Structure formats: structure tokens, C-alpha cells
Amino acid sequence: MTLPPHVVANPRLGTWLHVADGVLHVQVGKVELGQGILTALQQLAADALGVPVGDVRMVAAHTTHGPDQGVTAGSLSVLQSGPALRHLGGVVRALAGPVDEGYVARVAALDPATDLTAVTPAPPLPARAVGCDVPRADLPDKVLGRPRYLTDLRPDGLLHGRVLRPPRPGARLASVSDWVPGLVRDGSFVGVVADREADADRALESLRRACTWEGGSALPDEDHLPDWLRAGEHEVVEVLDEGAGAPTHAASYSKPFLVHASIAPSAGMARWDDAAAGPLLRVWSHSQAVHALRDALATTLGLTAEQVEVQHVEHAGCYGHNAADDAALDAALLARAHPGRPVLVRWSRGDELTWAPLSPAMTATLGATVEGGRITSWSHETWSLGHSARPGYRGAPGLLAGAHLADPVPLPPSTDPPAAAGHGSMRNGVPTYDVGTRRVVGRRKVDSPLRTSAMRALGAYLNVFAIESFLDELALEAGADPLDFRLAHLADERARHVLREAARLGGWGEALPEGHGRGLGFARYKDRGAYCAVVAQVEAEADVRVRRLTVVADVGLAVAPEGARNQLEGGAVQATSWTVRERVRFDRTRITSDDWESYPILRFAETPEVAAHLVGTDAPSVGAGEAAQGPTAAAIANAVHDALGVRVRDLPLDAAAVVRAIEST
Amino acid sequence: MTELQVNGETVAVDADGETPLLTVLRDELGLVGSRFGCGQGLCGACVVRLGDAVVPACDTPLWQAEGQPVTTVEGLARDGVPHPVQQALINSQAAQCGYCVSGIVVAAAALLEREPDADADRVAEALDRHLCRCGAQRRIVAAVLAARGSA
Ligand code: FES
Ligand code: FES
User: Fold this and answer.
1) Dihedrals φ, ψ of A283, to 5°?
2) Angle, vertex CA A629, rays to CA A487 and CA A221, nearest 5
């Protein structure tokens, strides 16, 4: 029997399952980020345990009580948890006997210390919940306005905390007058606490006036990011070197810095208790990785991992490594100054948009040799900043306030996940198409005054945008239809199928009104995840309006089909916002896009109609949340070209970009 | 002391008149259903009904709310039955993280009261000051339309 890795790492039965009030409580290490994952895992767990979905309750991740399943990211949750839950259910049924009236009571009597790796699981049962649409367990609370999010916690003795960030990256606190109520200071980290939230907000304003700062890092010129990315020192990420011929065509593409822009600013709650045996720190966080956060907090605060406990609490949508972990350290630092009382820290909107890790600016140059209508060689070179600075990623805690402490714990330079994890800057750098000999290389700029980390799809967003735009350019050059051109270079049947379906459902080739255009984009996420093709229909005149998106994906067996469609739709709409609206703005000293007016995102009236379709297969389940971003960006750019005859290669694809493109033709 | 009428109940609040209504609701009255998103009146996460108007509670000082009925997301249900807009959102999974939803259902319920036949464009227009980062806008509009007959 091959054991699922997450069972090997967490072999104790009681880590995954306990029974309370006659209900099977299943605890996983994956966390609900608004993507509905706990409902999908509830379906998997119910089938594995042989009970109806309603008999299973999912418990939030916890460093002491639950399994360590690493980070909830990369569209891997079902892929990693499915086998573990199936194994768990098989072992439970093997030990507790048939699923009859006494079953739950017998499960309750199982020894929590049971070693899951030492028992041969009972054979799997036929799927009952998997593949069906089960109501999302978390939505009623959220829609009815019940307490559910981290900032809704109101434990006894609660203090509200606020932190004042430096006025610009790299600045140090020169002085602070001590008349600020509730002041907590450690080096350049300053914050306030108060019993009432209104008082905490007022104290923060006093604090702002009471502080003077010095120094700061110089930021790059926001209008010349591709040049800046190509300059300086780089780490080389070799992907493929089969040699590439002299290109007959070449083009460069770019994206600006983007920000997560979750609708809630990040938050954290912490309680510090001093005891004879030493301090105990308890933290409530919307982190994507509670175990890594625990270790990062322990290192930063000079505690052992056993002295820190982190529990996951849901918060607003999370699209990657945002400020959740940073806010947890903020809360811990304020709580340390007020032992015995829980402190709830909430960031401001401005700090969320300027101090959370950014999605890096990127640029790529593609080259191809085309002979007789066929691509015979291909080159792809990407310049980027690192796409991961997650806590613990380079053995450093990587928490924002750590760098501001009197005894600083610096932030490590951002890096990239390894090839085995699907790359970062070079994610989806290799086209799925048959393009002859290939040369694919990444160059990761080492130094950056702006902190960057993982946001949905990582480098795949720019790489797919570039590849799929370039393919359209080559197709048009060759006088071929972009769909036919792609199919002529594509052997993978699943890929061909999603492309053809998207074309059919998206009205490919049908007539459009004047000023409208249609475009296509495709990728297989991470080369091993979901296949996704998008047809975009745009209206482009003075401005670019995306009217309709048709998304077709093959995610293997969809555990929760409606949830998968929801993720694809949301991913496509968010990517539309990135593509046509978004750009982090800064001057040479600080980020200036610090509210919803200076960092506009797509609004209701601008949101395209979007229809997501799953093409059914029984291949292993893969995630849907990151499949549509790159294809959507390319489909929009290709549609704008179809409408206006101009090619926009530098994002965002807004009115100004269209004007520039028209002027340069 | 300021007297407020919140969801049909009269409550006394001991807070500075300039305190944002949202802070009063969440921190003084424990009504955490109205969410904090920006504190600048720009995202709609905190929207409540104030008299006949739909306003961001973060941008409404306490003194302004005095003497007018306040309805928050918690006050939309009738006899424990969710408002039709809420039910439609749940039925059609018209949300991902749901953080934007409280303000949206308050605004959508007010819209349907004024314009029971609002079409998709009207709904999108009425919700245009609400931001949704998860990209659930179209599902939300469809759910509001589905709630029309029963709202
Ligand atoms: S929190 Fe009130 S509008 Fe954003
Ligand atoms: S559902 Fe997450 S912000 Fe709207």
C-alpha cells in the first residue's frame, strides 16, 4: 500500500478526527480562504467515512490539534487532501466496522493514538457526495451577517490594537513623544492599544502626529519597470535549453506590480500569557499556513514552537501571500505588552494596499522561427522579482514587523518555488504547444526595495499572457485563424478539447458588431494542473470594456462542480480587473496607490458576463482557482487586437495603453 | 448619550458624536454583520440603511444617525426567515468569501423595495459602489434578479 504523504507526516488518528455530539469532526490543515475548500473536503471526508455530508463537520486548522498540511496554495488542496482523507476513512471503516447504527459510537471509541500508517484501509466506497453540489457550509453565516470573520471575534477582555507603519519603505523611527495613550514600541515598530475600538483609532492618529521618521529606500521609476527589471544582478532560472534557431519574430510583454486588494484589510488576534514555565502565545490568524506562521512567530519572538499556538479563523478572500501573517505578528507584539488580554489588530486600507507583499512586476521577451506556417523554434526569457517570500520559505521568518524591531529579524529577499512545485517566475514558461526546439530561461532580479510574493497564478499570469498573445501575432502573420493555428501545434487531446469547446461556446468566428472583438487564450496551469481556455468578447473604443468571457476547463473529476465553476468565474473576473484596470502606483519614495480611488478595481457595471463550463473527465482532481488568469489576460488582449487592429503588450490594457498602441502603429 | 434606533430597537450609546456609525455598531453594540473594508466610504462593505437612504456606516458619524431608523444586515430577516435576497445568494452560491455581501444585500433589498422590477443593468448600477474582489458580481446580480418576485 502506498501511503499518502500527508498521512505519513501526520499519522495519528486523533489529529484528523474526533467525535463530539454524535458528529464526526474532521480536522484538516488546509484552510478556508473563501474558495469553498472546506466544503469540498467535507464531501471527500463524508464519502471516505461512508456517511452523509451532514454527519461531518470540518474544524479549522490548528497547530496543536490538527495536521500539518503545509500551505493552502497552488491549487493543491484537493490533490493533497483527497488521498489523505480517503486513507483516513478507509482506516476508520476497517477499525470501526460496518457503517450501521452503531458506527459513529464505535468511531468515537477508537484510540486517538491509532497509527494510520499501520492499518490497512478498508476498500473505498462508491462516491456519493463527491461530484455533487453541496451547499457551502460557511456561506449562511456570511450572507446573514453573523460573526464569522476574524475581526468579529469578541473574547472577554479584548483590546483593540493599531500599528503605525513607516511613511515609506526603509524608513526608521527617529523619535516618538510618549504622551500617546496605549503606546507600544520596539525599535521602529510602534502601535497602540485601547479597550474601545474608537479610542484605538484616535490613539493611532495621535501616534501619527507624535512620530518623526528618517531614511528610506529609493523606489524605481514606475514608468520604466521593464528596463529596471532587466538591470542589475539576477539569479538565473534555467528551464529548458534545446537550442533555438534565429528568430523570425520577437516581441516583449510586461505587467506592473499588482496588489491582493482583499476587501478586508488583514487582521490578527493574539493573547500572551506569562506562566512559571515561560510565556504562552496564542494567535488567531487568517494565514494560509498556520504551522509555518507558528514557527516564524516563535523565531521572531525568541520562543520555542511549543510556546506558540496558531488557530485559523476565516477572513475575507485571500488570493495569495497577503498581510495575514504580518498582522499576526503585529498582534503578538502588542499582546506581549499586555499579558493576559487578547489583542485584536486590524490593518488600515492604506496599509493593506501599500505594505502587504505585492505581486511582482514582470517582463518577457519571446522569439520564434516560423517556416511554412509552422513554428520550428521558440525562445522565452522572463525577468521578474521573486514570487515567494512566505514565512519560513528561505529559513527566515519573513514577517514585516520583524524588520522594524530594535533587534531586527530582516525580511529575506523574495525567491521562487522550485521547478518541482511548478516554478514561480517561470511558472507556465514552457508552452503546451509543439514549437520545435525550445530555449526557456528566467532571470530573477535579486534586489528590490518593494517586497513581493505569491499572488494567484504567480508568473503564469504574465507568461501565459505573453505566450498566447505571441501565438496570435504569429498566427495573424501566417494568415491563419488563431484557433486553427493553435490546434495545428497541439497534440494533447485534453488541451484540444477545451480549446474547441471554448471556441464553440464562445461563438468563435461569428459576426460581431462594429468596435467589438473576440480573442482566445489557453494554458494548462503549471503544466500539470487544470486545462483552461477562455474566449473574451470586448468592446473597444476610447476604453476597453470586456463584455463576455466564456471559460472552459478540464479540472479532472470535479469534487464540487458548482464550486469549481465559481472559482473559474471569479478567477476570470479578477484577472479581467488586473488586466484592464490595475497597477500599483508609486513615486521615488513611496507607494501612492493607497485607497480604492488610486487603486481602482473592476466595478459591478464593468464586470463582464461570465460563463464557466467544465468538460467532464475522471482524471485526478486538480484545483480551479488559478487556471483562468493567464488565459483571460491573453484572450482580452487578443480581442482588443481583433477589435482595433492594435497590439497592447504592456499591461494594464487601459485607455491610455490603447492610445499609445494606436499612436505607435 | 445618543439614542439610536437599530433594527427596530432603541439603544443608548455612550460615544463621541463623531465616532463612525460602523464602529458604534460593531464595537459598542456587537452588531458585527456590517463589515469594515476601507473606512473611507469607498467599498460598500459596511453599507446600512439609514431612514430611506443607503449609506456607508464607516463614513456616517454617530450624530447623523440619531433620530433615523438604522437597518443593518442583521435586521433584514423577518421572523428568523432570511430576506429573499439573502436566500437567493445562498441558493445560488453567489459569493466566494462573502465579505462584500453584507453591504450588498442591504443595498439590494432597498433597491427591490423601490424598484421591484429592476433589471440586470439597474441592479449592477445600484451596486456599483460595492466592490467585490472575488469576482462574484455576475452571480450576485443574477441572485438579486431571482429574488425579485419574493422581495
Ligand atoms: S468600509 Fe465603509 S465603505 Fe468601505
Ligand atoms: S465574495 Fe469575496 S469580496 Fe465579494
Assistant:
1) -130, 140
2) 120
* pLDDT for position B149: 83
Q: What is the mean pLDDT of residues A584-601?
A: 98
Please tell me which residue of chain B has the smallest CA distance to A263. B37
Task: Say whether pLDDT at A109 is over 80.
Answer: yes
Question: Where along chain B do its domains lie?
Answer: 2-74, 84-147
Kindly state whether residues A631 and A497 are assigned to the same domain.
yes
Chain B contacts of A35, Cβ < 8 Å?
Answer: 96
* Bond into B82 cis (ω within 30): no
Q: Where are the beta strands (DSSP E) in B16-146?
A: 47-50, 53-56, 69-71
B99 lines ligand 2 (CB under 6 A): yes
A349–B105 CB contact, under 8 Å: no
Q: What is the pTM of this model?
A: 0.97
B28 contacts in A (CB within 8 Å)?
196
Calpha distance A411→A397 (Å, rounded): 7
DSSP 8-state secondary structure symbol assigned to residue A421: G
Q: Do residue A436 and residue A478 come from a single domain? A: yes
- C-alpha to C-alpha distance for B16 and A43, rounded to whole angstroms: 49
**Is position A564 within any domain?**
yes
Q: Would you call A143 an interface residue with chain B, using a CB distance cutoff of 8 Å?
A: yes
List CB contacts (< 8 A) between B35 and chain A. Answer: 149, 151, 263-264, 316
Domain of residue A532: give its range. Answer: 362-387+423-664
Ligand 1: atom nearest CA of B39 is 1
CATH of domain B2-74: 3.10.20.30
CB nearest B138 (choices: A147, A574, A607): A607
The predicted structure's pLDDT at residue A1: 63
pLDDT tens column, A406-418: 999 999 999 999 9
Ligand 1 within 6 A of B46 CB?
Answer: yes
Residues of chain B with pLDDT under 50: none
Q: Please say if the pLDDT value at position A665 is more than 80.
A: no
Mean pLDDT within A430-451: 97
| A558 and A615 co-located in one domain | yes
Does residue A630 share a domain with residue A521? yes
- The answer to whether A205 faces chain B, any CB pair under 8 Å, is no
A147 touches chain B (CB under 8 A): yes
Q: Assign domain B84-147 one CATH number from 1.20.1250.20, 1.10.150.120, 1.10.375.10, 1.10.510.10.
A: 1.10.150.120
Domains in chain A, number: 3
Q: Which residues in chain A (41-60) have CB-CB distances under 8 A to chain B?
A: none
Q: Quick: pLDDT tens for A68-84.
A: 999 988 778 888 899 99
Contact A63, A290 (CB under 8 A): yes
**What are the DSSP calls for A288-309, one per residue?**
S-HHHHHHHHHHHHT--GGGEE
